[in-house]
User: What shape does this take?
Amino acid sequence: MQMLIDLSIPEQPENLLKLVKSCEDVLRLGVRTGHPRFFNQISCGLDLVSMAGEWLTATANTNMFTYEIAPVFILMEKSVMTRMWEAVGWDPEKADGIFAPGGAIANLYAMNAARHQLWPRSKHLGMKDIPTLCCFTSEDSHYSIKSASAVLGIGADHCFNIPTDKNGKMIPEALEAKIIESKKEGLTPFFVCCTAGTTVYGAFDPLERVANICERHKLWFHVDAAWGGGMLLSPEHRYKLAGVERANSVTWNPHKLMGALLQCSACLFRQDGLLFQCNQASADYLFQQDKPYDVSYDTGDKAIQCGRHNDVFKLWLMWKSKGMEGYRQQINKLMDLSAYFTRRIKETEGFELIIENPEFLNICFWYVPSKIRNLEPAEIKARLEKIAPKIKAGMMQRGTTMVGYQPDKQRPNFFRMIISNQAITREDLDFLIKEIVDIGESLE
Amino acid sequence: MQMLIDLSIPEQPENLLKLVKSCEDVLRLGVRTGHPRFFNQISCGLDLVSMAGEWLTATANTNMFTYEIAPVFILMEKSVMTRMWEAVGWDPEKADGIFAPGGAIANLYAMNAARHQLWPRSKHLGMKDIPTLCCFTSEDSHYSIKSASAVLGIGADHCFNIPTDKNGKMIPEALEAKIIESKKEGLTPFFVCCTAGTTVYGAFDPLERVANICERHKLWFHVDAAWGGGMLLSPEHRYKLAGVERANSVTWNPHKLMGALLQCSACLFRQDGLLFQCNQASADYLFQQDKPYDVSYDTGDKAIQCGRHNDVFKLWLMWKSKGMEGYRQQINKLMDLSAYFTRRIKETEGFELIIENPEFLNICFWYVPSKIRNLEPAEIKARLEKIAPKIKAGMMQRGTTMVGYQPDKQRPNFFRMIISNQAITREDLDFLIKEIVDIGESLE
Assistant: This one.
């Protein structure tokens, strides 16, 4: 790669022609994440309206921390969040939220706020001055929950992984048992994370049942809907998140299912005020209180960040262009494609689904090449570990398509198909199946 | 504002003409942060090459966590950081770093890594299992240091503010006294932050002397050069950061002095490896280890974030277009303008500098309207508190220029002029002085 393009910073200015050539090289050598046959990531696709929004964002180049320098964008953030609060099922008059640089930081915001509500002393005196906290998330949840626990000084080992059932959903009984056990061990439970759309299997944890447990034990109830949040915009499919309105906080990344450009991620709170109390640093030298407008519009004191990129314009513009109805159709169409792909996998020889009936846009499967199908099960399993990486390497060499794989628990490497790009057609899905068979059968 | 533009998200799609009209309104009603008479923020200006870079970034729309999907950009990040490491004075073969969403998160990265190096147990078991930590930063430093201490579970009150001298620089003797005192009180000092370019006064802390103290007490030495880092590119002015090469970590925001679009912020480490050990979450389901390339190029396990925006392309393109020589000239020119403005302030009646000889691009001053000049000093001080806000409100009504103000310690509200936009000319500076006099004299 380093031989194909000169990435070094020169001593003297480079002329415009050379710069334009460099830009061409950069785009040519990059991975086409917007291509409808790029199935590798949950965030993909390239919505042109969102792109135009990002271009104008760059042109406006302002900072989201005060109404003074970003008046329109601050109001825009509120307008967009109002639709998101309504979609969650909250009263927009009482709710709060902030756009964060990605879901991991959004989850960190939520856990930090939860700690602050229960133990405000921690902000000033640290964790030594409060009980030993612990939190809970499913074993299939995103690693950022454990990371947040590490960063916040709670400790990754005090974030307990709750087992999931065969569909990848958190088992509520196991959660409650662990909560009780942790109390017996002298720990203080404070936070439970449910995932709405897990990274690998796309599973939705049972929100209502977990909400009941959180109420019973007086725990903060967070829903990491980074991936699944967009489903709230489909009246047909939103039942999968039933109970989300009982959450104290919700992470929802429009740069995933809604197709906004990276980065666009919101951390939403049912209760106004906490975000401010938790993160306010009283930096009057930046956030003056004697300005000629209502300074409650300023968001600087709600953020862990100081300067904050404008992530809302591209989402707002795209959302206006589609309307609520456009998103409804887009999400329903993706769900239909998911059902189509699942059917095709089931009927094509050599494919084996990990979860028989995927409920979302993740379809996980093995491809078992014909020459190993008749081996002993243990031998097939051992061989499978290397099949998916080899098939993927073949795709990358051909440059035709890309799809992710991973091992999980006792399962050897399997493919994780993601149907998230609004440009995907049935032909693209058929192509992927054909390509996997083609490369898989040609392996030595 | 809400009457001037319809910010709501509609039920049905909006047509293209209406969308374009909305975009026009948004840009028209926004604040022109790229205008050469916008002096309100440290991050301002609008470099067209950087903007083009951001546009292409949006077009490529990829995620910085793996080489697999961002091969060029991952190598580009390394190439740009190499120049930054060299500018700091480190061996690029041994250094490390990551682009973070803003200086506050970059500072958080640094403090988290410092804790991990000294007390790796904290990652797994939390703060309860290690001594009570404390850290140090000057009273004029950015509030994000205290915030990081709060977020990490160390506690804001365990981040001690060290007094500064009349030029706004940390007093090393006061730092060492506080370190010794905190040990006597049973605390465990671990982290000292020096600021290179403070937010209000633009002061540079005495890095060499603080480095000596950190060595003596075996403390992590962090330099928050978010604002002043760009000075390292000027052979004429970089002496102000002498000793920065002794730091363990440096925050440097190219979206400030270097004029890259928001957001562009780097957290640099002298020692490779720590960032990975500290933040690795072993999420093999996302960052597979059996890929057909050297997976040490993947950055996902170094980050607190999972998905990470590509902040480097716009910087790289701009830096190529200027070369090292272009930045040298740009920074020297800004420093010359700063000296010019200071001279003009000194010779214009009614203006009073807060720090007699500003050493950077912040010039802090009062304007004392003629009708209050002959009052008693205490009375002048009381009146001054309201003068700057009123003059600024006047500027905003006229829409001609913008400059920030703030109170500090015993000082009533004063203006903080920032000369950071490369488009600024002497005429713009003359204009600001004239405008302040004009509005100031017209006040009731």
